[in-house]
Amino acid sequence: MRVLLTGATGFAGGHILRALLNANINVRAPLRGAASARPLSPLLETPRIDDLATANWNELCNGVDAVVHAAAYAHDDRADPAKIFRINRDATAALVQAAAHHHARFIFLSSIRAQVGVSSPIPLKDGYPPQPDGPYGEAKLAAEAAINQACPNNISLRLAPLYGPGVKANLATLFKLAQTCLPLPFGALRAKRSLLSVQTLSDLIVRLLQEDPDLRGTFLVAEPGALSIGEMIATLRAGAGRPPRLISVPAPWIKAACFALNKPLLWARLGEPLVVSDTLALERRYPAVFRPSSEGLTQWAKADQAD
Predict the structure, then answer these.
(1) Which is nearest to 26 in space by CA: 52, 55, 63, 57?
(2) Domains in the chain with CATH codes
(3) In the predicted model, what is the mean pLDDT of the chain?
């Protein structure tokens, strides 16, 4: 089997690349920029591209059995909407057309933001009508539509927020806070948030490629056992052998502080729920792959201590 993997130098793509190579899968991973050193594995090809939007996808898809599209313009509330759509929708549409031409299976790393905004008052389940909020989620949903139109043999994975070694943005900040000995004011926050380990995602991709060639559709992907922000901090600190050091500041006070600082999205991520059902189709299909987020967070913290 040969797989075209985009985004191999990114957070999720880098972990997926290692998982594919460990499973003895041949990988073609186009990289941006000047040529670098010889690939790390004889199973790996690293052709050069200038930009996702201008790459010769027809040439890159020639001879591959599947495409795993992990590259994206990462979510950023301040990002240019035109660039978000150019990379996340238009480049994806060009890639999937080339994949379909070469009869390659297509696995798309979409986002929970294609399903819903920063929070949801109800638990999310497979098959719920999507209601994205903002350019990033809208672009991901538009990319899914382009994929469905061009390539019937596809899987779109609407991923919960990813965590693990090398993570960036909000969960990187959370991890850094957990590494400190500072008392943190999140003990009274009760809203649960679903997460997904990048290792769980990588294992799932390998299973989909090796064991489920006929599976297709759009799926939510999250680990069981959603956690509050305080529970995430306490779990990470326990994994590192530290006490939780959480102060129970009333939630309305934290909300008022976030709004006073003109950061309503920060409050949404801290104090509002974003829970994905524990009865997802992929979780039922691959019970050995999915573990509670508390276990993944603990392992992350322990691995960081060992480094």
Answers:
(1) 63
(2) 2-164+194-223+276-290 (3.40.50.720)
(3) 92
